[in-house]
Amino acid sequence: RTLFGKSLSSSKTDVTLDVGDGRKVSGITCLAKHLQRTSAEFRDVSLEDRMQVEQWLEYRLYIESLQDVESERAVLQELNSYLQDKVYFVGHSLTVADILLYHSLHRVFKHLSFHDKERFINVSRWFNNVQHDRRLRQSLTLLPFVRSLLYSGTSSH
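Structure tokens predicted for GST C-terminal domain-containing protein:
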């Protein structure tokens, strides 16, 4: 496989990008940081935004380490508050932070009830927005956020 024109290899435990000249970048966080610094797609990202992205990449490691529902709920509450007036985690467009946080939070959202998704409405809004990009979702399942269709647009009378 390739990523941004570079050779990408992965195993169950690691991912490695061949960046040329015999150099390789291993590990999802290191790979994300490398791509953020070198890819044309992220060229216009300010230094401040890049640093914020790196902070969220570190926070993602904390999310990955969560072992119980209570800790997951605390993180969701924190993220919900943070996203209250934001569409994305950093700046006004999708970043590496959004992509990796989405993948880390998928296992948490997978087990949430509709009530909990409503309770964490801001992070749910963000998650649902991000998950609709098939390129980002990849093999992860599309999770439901609406119980039933409230209005079909047709009249029954």
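The helical segments are 28-38, 47-65, 69-82, 96-109, 114-119, 121-131, 134-137.
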